[in-house]
Write a structure and sequence with these properties.
Structural class: mainly beta
Strand content: over 45%
Number of strands: 25
Largest sheet: 5 strands, mixed
CATH superfamily: TolB, C-terminal domain
Strand order of the largest sheet: 1-22-21-20-19
Shape: globular
Helix content: under 10%
Number of helices: 0
CATH class: Mainly Beta
Amino acid sequence: MTSATPILNIAATLGEGAIWDQRDSVLWWVDITDRRLHRFTPATGADRAWSMPSTIGTVVPRNAGGVVVALGNVVAAFDPDSATLTTLAGIDQPEQRFNDGKCDPAGRLWVGAMALDQRPAAGALYRLAAGGALNAQVPGVTISNGIVWSRDGATCWYIDTPTKRIDAFDFDLTNGRLSHRRPAVRFPEGVGYPDGMAIDSEGMLWVAMWEGGAVLRCDPLRGTVIGCIVVPGARDITSCAFGGPDLDVLYITSAGGDRRTAEHPNAGALFSARPGVRGLATHAYAG
């Protein structure tokens, strides 16, 4: 069993959306409810933050430069040099907000929406094409979270947190279509709820566990938990991403706010761990 180390004890209210940007060797992450986009530079330990106009559910690098962010119910491009936002698409759902999301190997952004009151099955998983078309692909979602693809792009794994499982889909990389949904990993009582997710070079899934104080390594073919990284001093673990020059560092976000107590003094911190395996390179938005 490995333990993570706090590297930025910033006390984020709802840290999320960790993703490695190999262009500049930086880690992007977000604080959803504090409405802040963060860029952490491991080489210097510096963390720069930008205020956003609404909640920010996730961030991904953009091939055209800068990043793409999911703000409230709008997806926008963000230029960190000028601190300007350009709307790309949105949904006409004022009672919903975007949550976690990542890009597939072809550069489409997949981002989930959820009801502000977390009403069951009110949200959906959306696909944003490189050309800017935004369409719902998976309806009936409650709290859309982690999503990753296999190295060959043939399988997509996805988490709707309250289901307490990871689902697998067959994925048509050419057309960006999901099919044949089935459970891949079911989590037992007592380990928390699956939140954000990353994939390593061996095809194993790393899942941040809300209320679990850990990141679990899962074998999606056998449906078993095969490893654990304890996240000390924090209970609500929200996302994880492989980064570093060799993609062998796992960066981990957590939720703080009123969760930061004497029992959980690191709640809201950014952590890192060396799990002994490498991750896969980040996919950027192609639009």
